[in-house]
Write a structure and sequence with these properties.
The chain is an all-beta fold and 422 residues long. Helix content is 2%, strand content 64%. It has an 18-stranded mixed beta sheet that branches. A hairpin with a 2-residue loop joins strand 16 and strand 17. The chain starts with 17 loop residues before the first strand and ends with a strand. The N terminus is likely disordered.
């Protein structure tokens, strides 16, 4: 369900009053942005992100209630991110720091007869520090460059969800979920102020953004056993203050003074906030056809659709197209082979200053081999394989990309890969 990802639910319990977990993760990420024509020769800017996350979770033993056993956990999470920018990257976003502290709870009540109730809640306090630029209301340059001022925004976001799961005959599980989720805006959404070479945009943040809130209703039906396995879901989401990048119709070069002066290199986008409605559906299925050559041959299929509108009827920008696909596969204990095609329909439901996107057919093929071994007492899985993508060499444009009109997705390609899992 919506907030269940905050809780790693386990079925095993010991005889103590509760189980507890605590962990922390450190993530350092650095990357440079190069000139497309001079890869490796000229670095536009550098980003260095230092992320730290710690969490402690307490899981209680099942509690016997009049309705049935109650099982769950509660936890505390601390997240810290420090973003440093140098060179032209500092023109997009000055150094920023984000600190978030959250508490959460997850509970599941088994009512008998395969009926389960789930509930989750989360409360998060977020502080975002950075440099806010004072852009004019029309986002066009005046006599002076926008002044930078230190900004310190604080947000309190609360979220909650409740869900019902019912086991049905033939291995089916029906589910229904209602959730309310609030999200604090990020440093980029608040404080962006310049050109971004990777996306081809001149991005203008909004330091006055409020917390984004979404109310979602979802129903689903799934089956994960037997010859036919599938998961089907439909959802409806109402956003209060949806945060998005709005194409203004203006182009810019490297600095704000160039905006609106003609055919600039970058499309100007402004982070904005507006009420919106999203709804859609997703279906994935797999069918075992027959035993073949010591393995199983089968078919798979998928379909997904997202429709999104602002209040007033305008389309939300950068929404992926409707897609339908399927494939044939063969697998045994070690080998996996598949050939499949995914058809993306035309995307004509575009927003202001956004162009439509033609449909395409993506043909892919994959062959891989997986084996297990033990190294130093640690079980390890190693996979070797080869995968071909866009084998029809179609002209594919990504509907959610700002650079879709200038840059095609990669053409026909074949790559080898290997992975280790411990």
């Amino acid at each position: 369900m919506g907030l269940a990802h905050e809780h790693e639910h386990e079925d095993d319990h010991d005889d103590h009053d509760h189980d507890h977990d605590h962990d922390h993760d450190d993530h350092d990420h650095d990357h440079d942005e190069h000139d497309e024509a001079e890869e490796g020769a000229h670095v536009h800017g550098s980003y260095a992100s230092r992320d730290w996350e710690g969490r402690i979770e307490l899981q209680h033993v099942p509690v016997t209630t009049a309705a049935g056993p109650l099982d769950g956990a509660l936890g505390l999470q601390l997240t810290h991110q420090k973003l440093t920018t140098t060179g032209e990257a500092d023109e997009l976003l000055a150094p920023a720091e984000t600190l978030a502290v959250a508490g959460y709870v997850f509970e599941e009540l088994a009512l008998g007869g395969g009926l389960r109730l789930q509930a989750a809640g989360r409360l998060e306090r977020t502080r975002v520090k950075g440099q806010a630029a004072a852009f004019p209301a029309d986002l066009l340059p005046g006599a002076d460059d926008p002044a930078l001022n230190g900004a310190n925004r604080n947000f309190l976001a609360g979220s909650g969800s409740i869900g019902v799961l019912q086991d049905l005959p033939h291995g089916l599980v029906a589910r229904a979920t209602a959730q309310y989720v609030e999200r604090a805006p990020s440093a980029a959404e608040l404080f962006s102020k310049g050109s971004h070479h990777a996306s081809g945009t001149f991005e203008i943040g909004n330091p006055d953004l409020d917390t984004e809130a979404a109310t979602t209703l979802e129903i689903g039906l799934a089956r994960d056993t037997g010859r036919l396995r599938f998961d089907a879901a439909a959802f409806y989401t109402r956003f209060d203050g949806f945060i998005y990048k709005r194409l203004t119709g203006v182009t810019c070069d490297e600095d704000f003074a160039s905006c609106g002066g003609g055919d600039g290199e970058f499309d100007q986008v402004a982070y904005s906030q507006q009420d919106a409605v999203f709804y859609g559906t997703e279906l994935k299925a797999r069918l075992d056809l027959a035993d073949l050559a010591g393995g199983v041959i089968g078919l798979d299929g998928r379909y997904d659709l997202v429709h999104a509108e602002f209040d007033g009827g305008d389309n939300v920008p950068r929404i992926p197209p409707q897609r339908l696909g399927g494939g044939i596969w063969w697998a045994d204990d070690a080998w996996w082979a598949r050939v499949g095609i995914l058809h993306a329909f035309d995307q004509t439901r575009t927003s202001v200053n956004e162009t439509s996107t033609d449909g395409y057919d993506m043909l892919e093929a994959e062959l891989s081999y997986t084996t297990a071994f033990t190294s130093g007492g640690v079980p390890t899985l190693v996979t070797f394989g080869v995968k071909g993508t866009n084998l029809l060499d179609e002209d594919i444009r990504n509907a959610v990309s700002f650079k879709k009109d200038e840059v095609l997705a990669p053409g026909r390609g074949v790559r080898a890969f290997a992975s280790l899992k411990f």
